[in-house]
Amino acid sequence: MVGLGLKGFELTCVDSMVDRFLTRNYPPNNGHNQLIVAHRNASVRDLKMELTNIEGILQMEKNDGEVLQARKRDNGHWWEAPIKELNFFQLQQLKEAMESIKKKVEREAQNQKMVTSNAFPFLTFGSALAPISFASFK
């Protein structure tokens, strides 16, 4: 079986390949591998820093949510309390909210007025579509 031999193929090369892929031993470091490792380490470091920043932001948002929930529990529905029981800050907030609602209502009323005035632009009192007066039939 001369044709089946491993001519020109060193056994040490096969051993190093087997070691590399089966035992996860990495080849000896040279300039190229060091560059790859350095790039990988830099990428990992950047990703860890980004993760840390995102975790910090998430924690801040959780804390803000807890503060809002606590404030909501403590104050309850303060705007439903009698006016005489509200403090100055709550009265200011109530005033601003009521002014905002007033502006929204006025804006909606103006929009409705424009819609109804433009609904039938060609309909006039002398139009054939005007309601018939029964007083003329008496």
Q: DSSP strand (E) fraction?
A: under 5%
Count the E strands: 0
Helix content: 55-70%
What is the rounded distance between the termini?
A: 129 Å
Low-confidence stretches: none
What is the radius of gyration computed over CA atoms, rounded to a whole number of angstroms? 41 Å
Listing every helix as H and every strand as E from the N terminus to the C terminus, the arrangement reads HHH
Describe the main β-sheet briefly: none
On the 0 to 100 scale, the average pLDDT is: 75
Count of runs of 4 or more consecutive helical residues = 3
The dominant shape is: elongated
Overview of the structural elements:
The protein is mainly alpha-helical. Among the domains are: 30-81; 82-117. The protein has 3 helices and no strands. The protein has helices spanning 11-22, 31-75, 88-117. The longest helix has 45 residues, at 31-75. It starts with 10 loop residues before the first helix and ends in a 21-residue tail after the last helix.
Task: Outline the fold blueprint.
Blueprint: H1 11-22, H2 31-75, H3 88-117
In short:
The protein is mainly α.
Which short descriptors sum up this protein?
138 residues; elongated; mainly alpha
